[in-house]
Amino acid sequence: MNLGRCSITRAEIWGALKGLELAWEAGHRQVELQLDSKTAIALLLDTGQHCHQHANLTIRFQDLLRRDWTVRVTHIYREANFLADCLAHKGHLLAPGTHMIDTSDPDICRWALFDSVGGFTIRSIAE
After folding, report:
1. pTM reported for the whole predicted model
2. What is the crossing angle of helices 8-25 and 38-45, to 10°?
3. What is the DSSP code (8-state) at residue 103?
4. Are the CB atoms for 33 and 20 separated by under 8 Å?
5. How far apart are CA 119 and CA 42, in angstroms?
6. Which one-letter DSSP state was computed for residue 12?
7. E strands of 58-106, at which residues?
8. Mean pLDDT score across all residues of the chain
9. Which residues, 6 or more positions from 87, have their beta carbon under 8 angstroms from its beta carbon?
10. What is d(CA 81, CA 85) in angstroms, rounded to the nearest whole number?
11. Would you tell me how many other CB atoms lie within 10 Å of the CB of residue 111?
């Protein structure tokens, strides 16, 4: 999904919301949602605070959680989530809106396999 210009947190929340909507529509009833943003997870799971700029999305997310299914939300490190990174970069190249990506795309296949076997890389920060 290309959201145009927005914060990383908003993009993470949108991704979680759209991912759960797609999972529900596809008939999945046991889902593990992995996010690499602890901030997004805290906002999505906090049922008491809706006084923030993402409240309309977090309320929709929490409504989805109340359906008859099991959803486990977990934090994973960005280094273990290369497929999400790949999809985000591809999304920036698309027109605004929601798009379905061909799963035969070589980049998607490579990063899905990499993530599924627990691959990781060490990212260094230059000073």
Report:
1. 0.73
2. 60
3. T
4. yes
5. 26
6. H
7. 70-75
8. 82
9. 101, 108
10. 7
11. 19
Alpha carbon distance 26, 20 (integer Å): 10
Tokens 């990174």, located at residue:
85
Q: How many residues does the chain have?
A: 127
Q: Which two tokens stand for residue 21?
A: 């909507």
Report residue 69 as tokens: 């299914």
Q: Please check whether residue 115 is in contact with residue 107, taking contact to mean a CB–CB distance below 8 angstroms.
A: no
Radius of gyration of the chain (CA): 15
Which residue reads 């690499």 in tokens?
A: 36
* Residue 122 contacts residue 79 (beta carbons within 8 Å): yes
For residue 31, pLDDT beyond 80:
yes
Question: Which residues does 78 contact at the CB level (< 8 Å), separation at least 6?
Answer: 36, 85
Q: Give the whole-angstrom CA distance, residue 4 versus residue 20.
A: 21
Is the pLDDT assigned to residue 112 strictly greater than 70? no
| Burial readout 43-73 (b: 16 or more C-beta within 10 A, e: otherwise) | bbeeeeeeeeebeebbeebeebeeeeeebeb
